[in-house]
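Chapter summary example: a protein plus coproporphyrinogen III.
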Amino acid sequence: MGKIFVDACLGLETPYTPVWMMRQAGRYLPQYMEVRKQAGNFLNLCHNPKLAAEVTIQPLDIVNVDAAILFSDILVVPNEMGMKLEFLAGEGPVFDKPISTEDDLDSLIGGDEAASKLTYVYDTIKILREQLDARGDNKALIGFTGAPWTLATYMIEGQGTKTYNICKKMMYSNPELLHKILKKVTEVVKLYMEKQIESGIDVVQIFDSWAAAIEPSKYNEFSWSYMVEIADYLKSKYPNTPIIMFPKGVSAFVERGLVYGNFDVFGVDWGTPMAMAKEKLGDKYVLQGNMEPCRLYDKVATTQCVEGIHSIMGGKRHIFNLGHGILPDVPVENAKHFVSECQRVSKK
Ligand code: CP3
């Protein structure tokens, strides 16, 4: 029996529409909080393959999703390129020395040397591959990376930002430097994802969480083209490993039918109507998504949305998910309800 999630990524018929949730391993689960406490802090948890594997598996057992997503963070990549990273309580990720010049960039490690430092990620995947195979329930393992653009926003701003003013200043006044940064990150990401595949993941997801920060006429140049390059590289070596592309907040591109790219699945964010995504992209990609994550606060609002999405997609070329990550204060009960409703309405 094939894995239902992998089959769905490839557009094959499945007994029901599989479901997982972005950020499904995390703070809404008391069991996650317990393991994080044991690790000391979030980064220690990412660096500890045994514990990282444990929290990766938790949502399979607790909320019954059809795929596990590797527990790690997109920012371990710039961290291993040499940027010191801290996660401050209440503030999120902070790099102590953001990149603002070519010298800053040159001081970072690139290519295979950087990708080879992420051994704790590959070790986590190897543990998970064994554990998942031993379960025999055919649940899939998703590996992931941040998109070069989304990673670059943190590398240039030094932290999360509402305005992206520092990286946009670079985009318009020194685009050559921004492209150099994006190229260097792209090289590392290609090798990083190759090593994740070699270690045992079933599917790749690329998170372009901050896609919406770029004006539409510049999106291809500064983000999409780099992801196409990554996908072309991976597909040339691993044609059977599905790739999910999740660019958040890009309904303007979807509307214009932005279609080119060697991806199998397009992750639809919650601001993009599913019917429009289906019309514009449904022939080219399997669609993943797209319930507004805050609907999880209410079971009736959840069921209505799940039924609505299912009636649009008709159980074909679709994977259920949220339109962005689950928030930490969502009751576990409600997350379980979402998953079981997706499986119920789509059962053939
Ligand atoms: O369950 C999963 O989805 C797997 C693990 C995962 C994490 N981060 C764990 C995490 C994944 C896939 C990510 C990706 C990630 N990290 C993204 C892209 C996805 C998205 O949500 O758009 C981004 C932008 C980041 C960067 C990042 N990491 C931020 C901005 C923050 C702080 C904000 C927050 O949610 O607290 C993190 C920390 C982080 N990454 C946590 C977790 C579980 C919370 C850390 C904690 O336990 O305190």
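Key point: The chain has a mean pLDDT of 96.
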